Amino acid sequence: MKRIITTAVLLLFVSTTIYAGKKKIQFSTSERDANIFVDGKLMGKGNVEVLISKKSCVKVRVEKVGYLTYHIEFCNEKESSKPPKSYHMEMHRDDAYDASVQTDIANIDIEIKSNKHKDVAWKLINQIVLSYLDVIETTDKETGYLRTAWQLKTFKQNTIRTRIIIKQPSDSTYKIKLVSEESQRPLTSVKADELYREWDRVLRKYKDIISEMQSRL
Predict the structure, then answer these.
(1) What Å distances lie between residue 211 and 80, 81, 146, 173, CA to CA?
(2) Which DSSP string corresponds to 117-128?
(3) Ranges in the chain, pLDDT < 50
(4) pTM
(5) Angle between helical axes of 118-132 and 209-216 (0-180°, round to 10)
(6) pLDDT tens-digit profile of 92-149?
(7) Which residues contact 30 (CB under 8 A, 6 or more apart)?
(8) Domain extents in the chain
(9) 101-216 in CATH: which number?
(10) 21-93 — its CATH code?
């Protein structure tokens, strides 16, 4: 009997020691299926309990496709800055996501064969490109190469840059690449190449440029 009582007391002591000074936050989001990460670990969706040890902080990240990503830190360090008992995160739509479409033609060479004379085709290509993008940075009719300047668009949590690159491996064949890249941060310089990576989406204003070339060439 003494052993049972001693074990129960020990378990109670250990349990009390583990949770001593910890604070709990009932954390919820406006999107019930949003992923909630605590210190990088996925804890659940929509509504989770966040535990904060005494004299420490935790970082909470909330993510859902099509919505902005949110970061917030809670600390349990001082009496004057206790974490709240509950916290509700109101999520908002990702404006870059809504201004774009997912596509499988971004960042790859799309080959187009034309039945038009190469001079006529080259002139038509330039006309189509300029109807979508403002500035052609490099063009060489003799080698069949064209590249536009980057077109930049910044959003709340992202910057998107877009350009067209065209190569002509033969008189009747053209390779068109619609380059779409993101920085995952706002107001990124168009020249900061190291901050950009390929994006599997394309801004809506450019989504028809490849299909138009295919139909008109």
Answers:
(1) 61, 58, 18, 15
(2) -HHHHHHHHHHH
(3) 2, 4-19
(4) 0.83
(5) 160
(6) 999 999 999 999 899 999 999 988 888 888 999 999 999 999 999 999 988 889 999 9
(7) 88, 89, 90, 91
(8) 21-93, 101-216
(9) 3.30.530
(10) 2.60.40
